[in-house]
Amino acid sequence: MHTRFHPLFLAFALMMMPGSPVYAGYEEGVQAADRGDYATAIKEWQPLADQGDPRAQFRIGLCHDNGDGVAEDPVAAARWYLLAAEQGHAGAQNNLAWAYSHGKGVPQDDKKALEWYEKSAIGGNAWAQYNLGVRYQEGRGVPQRYGEAARWYKLAADQGHPLAMANLGLLLTEGAGVARDDATAVTLFRLSAERGAAIGQHNLGLAYRLGRGIEQDFQQARLWYLKAAEQGYAPAEHNLGALYEQGLGVDKNLGTARQWYRRAASRGYALSQNALGLLYVRGAGVPQDKVLAAALFLLAAADGNPQAESNVQHIRTELDQAEQDQAMALAKQFAQPDKFLEMLDRRANTPS
Asked: Which domain holds residue 345?
């Protein structure tokens, strides 16, 4: 079963309904699914779903959603989720809300997404509580209200939801909608990190890096950044690069810094694109290449990074028109995510 979540991450999760009636075959289906035998699982669940068992309907919906034992069919998944959701199945309500939120299998509709998220969250589904928190934090389909975001995050965090823990910790760090409390934020980051959430691992590393709510410790910062970076979390990759560039808790190594910036930049992380540009404009650990630097600044500026926007204006005064045109063309090539590393390495290995 695949999950769906991002930087602030939206997702769905499986949840059993307490007090559901026991139907012969349901548990046999669960056991078959646990073995990866979805054909048998569907054989057990389908008759129950047809009879109106919301647990089986939810499971059949998941199979269609993920393509487990049947062809992936988001329309069929949404239909089964709706049948279970209308009977109060909180997991199905959350997944139906996700479908409406993303327009998968149903027309995109933030109003209906919010309606189903609220029903699921009130029913105690931690993913729905988290997803509601994200919506209030971002102001998506609702007025931006950090206090309301914090309330939903806390309900989910109290159930052990690692992403909600990390996001609640951020609000506590910023004093957004709640009183600032760095020590409690660190506790939440650690709980999230120990449950394997990359954002929690990164945020704990950042707390150690800044000495915020905990004694400053660059080596601990590196340890937790590395755990998150190993999961492909771009902010952690960037901050590892910064540790190596500045020699904080590690021997200063501009080559290693460049490698971490390169990884994060390839994921579209503007801070790392700008940081790489600064290495190339200074010739720090790499041959100086102001055209390449300008292209990286342009790429980061297109994402709205203010430092990169300033760097673009400055470096234009150091390039002639032909070089500026070359940088623009290179930036367009970099804007294709699947081409970024190839084009970067090709340019970096080509004498300018």
From this structure: 270-352
